[in-house]
Design goal:
With about 210 residues, the chain is an alpha/beta fold. The protein has a single domain, classed as P-loop containing nucleotide triphosphate hydrolases (Rossmann fold). The protein contains eight helices and eight strands. The strands form two sheets. Strands 2-3-1-4-8 form a five-stranded parallel beta sheet, sandwiched between helices. Strand 5 and strand 6 form a beta hairpin. Helix 1 crosses helix 8 and helix 4 packs parallel to helix 5. The longest helix has 24 residues. The relative contact order is 0.18.
Length: about 210
């Protein structure tokens, strides 16, 4: 069974996805990461994606699904996947569900719940490493990254106005996807307001009865 991870920006989804993947030996699919991988290849799909990006256009859902299919076809036999940040909207959900059915893959969703107010607080106080891009919460008070020693700065797009737009997009486009999966019995959820360690602990407890194959 595959896992589809959801969470409003600031919920710690990126951090938890890495922990979950390492714990259960899952292969992470993250759209941005897969696009970066494709940029170094010389396949027909890579050429198509490069052409779209260079034209300044957004990668359409149909092509994103081609990227997902390409990712699935390269998984080792029997391996499970963790989808981070997809599907994000109704149109992506329809095509994602159809692709998963075609590939004969079952999945369960997991949402890390966090209020918009708490997300805003976290996003406006977090910092990012200029070298390795590791993200640090407000309580981390050192000026440099503990992993690579890079300088920590506030992201240029972490302004209140920009954050409000991103949070609104999640509520308007992604929340309906979450609610639909929930109505179909395909969604689990945890409290994202706790510490990273406590959230991780709850995630493991929630997933263990459903992910026996992990």
């Amino acid at each position: 069974m595959d896992l589809v991870l959801f969470g409003i920006q600031g919920s710690g989804k990126g951090t938890q996805s890495k922990i979950i993947a390492e714990k259960f030996n899952l292969q992470i699919f993250e759209t941005g990461g897969e696009l970066r991988k494709l940029s170094s290849l010389d396949t027909e799909l890579a050429k198509k994606v490069k052409s779209i990006i260079e034209s300044g256009k957004l990668v359409p859902t149909e092509v994103v699904m081609e990227i997902v299919a390409n990712f699935l076809h390269q998984l080792p036999e029997g391996a499970c996947a963790l989808f981070d940040g997809i599907p994000r909207s109704d149109d992506q959900q329809v095509q994602f569900d159809a692709l998963m059915k075609k590939e004969g893959r079952s999945f369960m969703g997991l949402t890390i719940n966090l209020t918009e107010e708490e997300a805003m607080k976290r996003l406006t106080t977090r910092r990012i490493c200029t070298k390795c891009k590791e993200i640090y919460p407000a309580f981390y008070d050192k000026p440099v990254c503990e992993k690579c020693g890079g300088e920590l700065i506030t992201r240029s797009d972490d302004t209140p106005d920009a954050i409000k737009i991103r949070l609104s997009t999640f509520t308007e486009k992604t929340l309906p996807v979450i609610n639909d999966y929930k109505s179909r019995g395909l969604m689990l959820d945890v409290n994202g307001r706790e510490s990273i360690g406590n959230v991780t602990k709850e995630i493991f407890e929630v997933l263990s009865p459903h992910f026996k194959c992990l």
